[in-house]
Amino acid sequence: MTETEPSTSARRPIADVLADLDRDPPPVHAGAPTGVWAAAHDCLEFLGARVHPGTRTLETGCGATTIVFAAAGARHTAVFLNESEGAAVTTWCGEHGIDLATVTLRAGSSSQLLPTLDPGPLDIVMVDGCHGFPFPQLDWYYAAAHLVDGGILVVDDTQLAAPYELRRYLEHDPRWERVHVGSQWVAFKRLGSGSLDEEWTEQRFHRPAALRVQDARRRARGTLGRLKRSIRG
Q1: For 24-54, what is each residue's pLDDT tens digit?
Q2: Are 68 and 125 contacting, i.e. CB atoms less than 8 angstroms apart?
Q3: pLDDT, tens digit (0-9, with 9 covering 90-100), for 78-129
Q4: Of the four, 11, 196, 200, 213, which is 20 to 30 A from 55 by CA?
Q5: Of 82, 76, 138, 140, residue with least CA distance to 107
Q6: What's the CA gap between 20 and 127, in Å, rounded?
Q7: How far apart are alpha carbons 210 and 224 in whole angstroms?
Q8: 205 vs 15, 120, 198, 228, CA distance in Å?
Q9: pTM listed for this prediction
Q10: 42 vs 32, 46, 113, 175, 206, CA distance in Å?
C-alpha cells in the first residue's frame, strides 16, 4: 500500500496531463498496444472535469484514470491486481510532475480487498478492474455502496459482456440515473445512499426477455388449461 501526506505544490492542468498520456503512455499493462489499457479519451475528460482537490474517489483498475484522479487532487484509492501496475504509475507520475500525495494504491484482487476497505463516503466510483463476470458486479456492489447521494458511478468497457450486463441492470434500477453515455463507458448518478442489498422482490424492474417469455408461456398454459376444463365441464 502507498499513501503519503498531501502536498501544497501547484497542480498541472488536466488538459496538459491528457496530452502527456497521449504522447507518452505509462507502461502499466503487459500486452497492451500502447503499454496501458487506458479508458477512452472522453472518459478521462469526463473525470477530469468533475474531480477537484478533495473529491473522494475510488477505482478498480490502475492506469490513465489513476493519473487523472491524482492530477486533479482527488483523495483517491485505486485497487488493482499487480504491484507492477502501481509501480509503473508511480514512476510515470514522478517523471511528469504529478503529485501522488492524496492517492492510495492497493494491489490485490478486488474480490478480496474491497470487502475489507472502509473508504468512507465517496463522490465518484470507477469500475474498470477485471472485466470477467462477476468482477464488475462485485466491484459495483462493494464500492458503489460507499457513494453519497448524488455520487457518480462510471462503468468502463461496456462493449464487453460483464460490464454491459451491469450497465443494463443499472439502467432499470430506480436507485440509479444514467447521466452520460460515452464511447465505451457509461456514467450513473446514485439516488440515495448506503447498502445496495436488495431481495428479488424489490427488483421487479429486472426482468430479462427470456424470463418475460417464460412467464407469458406459463400464463398462456394456465389460460388454456382453464379453457379446456370449462369446455369439459
Answers
A1: 999 999 888 888 888 899 999 999 999 999 9
A2: no
A3: 999 999 999 999 999 999 999 999 999 999 999 999 999 999 999 999 999 9
A4: 196
A5: 82
A6: 24
A7: 21
A8: 40, 30, 12, 33
A9: 0.86
A10: 19, 6, 29, 25, 30
